[in-house]
Specification:
Number of strands: 15
Number of helices: 6
Low-confidence stretches: 135-156
Radius of gyration: 20 Å
Largest sheet: 8 strands, antiparallel
Mean pLDDT: 86
Distance between the termini: 12 Å
Shape: globular
Strand order of the largest sheet: 2-3-4-13-10-15-8-7
Strand content: 15-25%
């Protein structure tokens, strides 16, 4: 496999394309010939319909029946989603609305409750802070111990940072108090938390994976990914957590010793996704507006394409996710996350999964 430089800078023409979509208004997007929005059915002429895939209606398993659903009437577990490919970017597959609303809710809950509360899965905040791990509603916590924290019992709720109240004063103490001030839980969850790593813990400074054995990859998320690509062994993921105004710079994912495809799942607010691939005469490029439940699958030549997110579109989180983590329809008792109601309304979460070796 050719070795690509993870520190290489993107082509200037693609940087200009990226900047254009950083500034472009929602209304102006529809007039762009190199822009695709499946939510409006626009510019499908850019894409080829190359197949279908069975929709994913539950995180647990392909056959699992969810006890509680927020899927609209008419969505059945044997429904299929279309798969589109862009001629100029071979291997770039877009699968709109593959993940149903119920499966989206379950996936967000797994990552933002269970996985965020597992101290083996590091975040950007760990680079500058000691992160306390909350295990109960009255803000008891345990320091990092190298193992998943807490056991769900009637007395101890499911481990989650959302068990703390937004008013909690328990601090996230800085590694260097001369450089950073302490954080509170509200700042951590609302603005400072930008990414979470699952499985292989990528070193963002060296742009490589450590040689040590990685934490186990969440098996239910791995099983979901293998419903999209049965040949992939999910070993590492980056969960990007965006707010309006956030971006993701142009980059290529070239640190893995594997040619297996990358799978990216969009959750929450819409985002503009830019992708470009150099050819013998220049650059092929495309901008796509991604909606909650859409999947991008980059394989073949597109596996190592340049890509980034120049814009998060505010106030576009679908209604069925806006109240997360608070489900107001529950009838089995009080809603324990009610203090955090609406957290997801302004967020976009991207799950990006890859095989390391």
């Amino acid at each position: 496999m050719d070795v690509l430089n993870a520190h290489e800078r993107p082509p200037e023409s693609l940087k200009l394309f990226y900047k254009r979509f950083q500034k472009i208004s929602t209304l102006a997007q529809d007039d762009c010939h190199d822009f695709c929005d499946f939510g409006k059915g626009g510019q499908k002429s850019l894409m080829n319909h190359v197949g279908t895939m069975k929709i994913i209606s539950s995180l647990e398993s392909e056959q699992a029946e969810s006890k509680e659903t927020i899927d609209p009437p008419g969505i059945l577990s044997d429904n299929e989603a279309p798969i589109y490919e862009f001629d100029a970017l071979p291997g770039l597959h877009i699968i709109p609305s593959l993940i149903t609303p119920s499966a989206q809710w379950q996936l967000i809950s797994a990552m933002m409750h269970r996985d965020l509360a597992n101290d083996q899965h590091k975040t950007n905040v760990h680079m500058h802070y000691h992160v306390p791990y909350y295990i109960s509603v009255d803000s008891d916590y345990m320091s990092a111990s190298g193992s998943p924290i807490g056991t769900r019992t009637p007395e101890v709720p499911e481990p989650s940072f959302f068990n703390a109240t937004p008013q909690s004063s328990e601090p996230f103490l800085p590694l260097d108090s001369k450089v950073h001030r302490p954080l509170d839980i509200l700042s951590f969850l609302n603005r400072k938390l930008r990414w979470l790593t699952l499985g292989g813990q990528y070193d963002w400074t060296r742009k490589q994976y450590p040689n040590t054995k990685p934490p186990s990859f969440p098996p239910d998320i791995a099983e979901l990914i293998q419903r999209i690509d049965p040949s992939m062994e999910p070993e590492a993921a980056i969960v990007n957590i965006y707010s309006a105004g956030d971006t993701l710079s142009l980059h290529r994912d070239v640190s893995e010793d594997s040619k297996q495809g990358l799978i990216s799942i969009s959750l929450g607010c819409d985002g503009i996704f830019i992708i470009g691939l150099e050819n013998k005469t220049g650059l092929d490029r495309l901008a796509i507006r991604l909606h909650s439940g859409d999947v991008i699958w980059m394989k073949g030549r597109s596996r190592f394409a340049w890509h980034g997110v120049p814009q998060i579109i505010p106030a576009t989180c679908p209604q069925y996710l806006q109240d997360w983590p608070c489900r107001l329809s529950r009838t089995d008792g009080p809603e324990k996350y009610q203090a955090w109601q609406g957290w997801m309304a302004s967020k976009r979460i991207n799950l990006n999964v890859r095989q390391m070796r």
